Amino acid sequence: MEVLEAIKKRRSIRQFTDQDVPKEFLLKILDAGRFAPSGLNNQPWRFLVIRKQDPRKPLLAQCTKYSHIVQRANVLIVVFLDKASSYHQLKDAQAIGACIQNMLLTICDLGLGAVWLGEILNQEEQVHQVLGTDANQLGLMAVIALGYPDQRGSSQRKPLDQLLVEELC
To answer: Which of 17, 67, 83, 165 could form a disulfide with 148 if both were Cys (CB 3.0 to 4.6 A apart)?
Structure first.
């Protein structure tokens, strides 16, 4: 798939089939994430993959008002900021956003669907308890719910002229 085609095709998918996502697809997705740009090349992202049979999955679903999405996803990728490698909070957050976008585009390219869950950040302490992760070492940045799509994604985009601060010369 061409990059621009993937960018325009990718949409948030919140419903998934029961079909398992192959491990080799997960490795491709994570590998795409690690190639995102980061300040000082610090690569501050860390990943925790939760498969559908993981006993922590239903507990993680209780950490968000979007529990139905977490429950139906075949895979969850929990994205963290490695605090020890962090050098600038905003720049590291931007880098992790780029990392997540790389993964979302790869997910789309592989014929899968995904949604970037951010509301779960409001329950970060509870998420760390459920996952057994250390909040002093890892900052919760997002959860990506993914699987084979059981819906078509759609959304409207504002016209470019509504987004420009100044007209293009």
So the answer is: 17
Q: Which fold has domain 3-152?
A: NADH Oxidase (3.40.109)
pLDDT(46) > 70: yes
What pLDDT sits at residue 1? 56
**pTM of the model as a whole:** 0.94
Q: 124: closest CA among 136, 110, 114, 112?
A: 136
Kindly report each contact of residues 133-139 with a partner whose C-beta sits within 8 Å and lies 24 or more positions away, as own/partner.
133/48, 133/80, 136/83, 137/82, 137/83, 137/84, 138/46, 138/80, 138/81, 138/82, 138/83, 139/80, 139/81, 139/83, 139/86
Q: Are 72 and 114 in contact (CB under 8 A)?
A: no
Environment class of 132 (CB within 10 Å of its CB; exposed 0-12, middle 13-18, buried 19+): exposed
Half-sphere exposure of 135 (CA within 13 A, CB side): 9
Q: Where are the domains of the chain?
A: 3-152
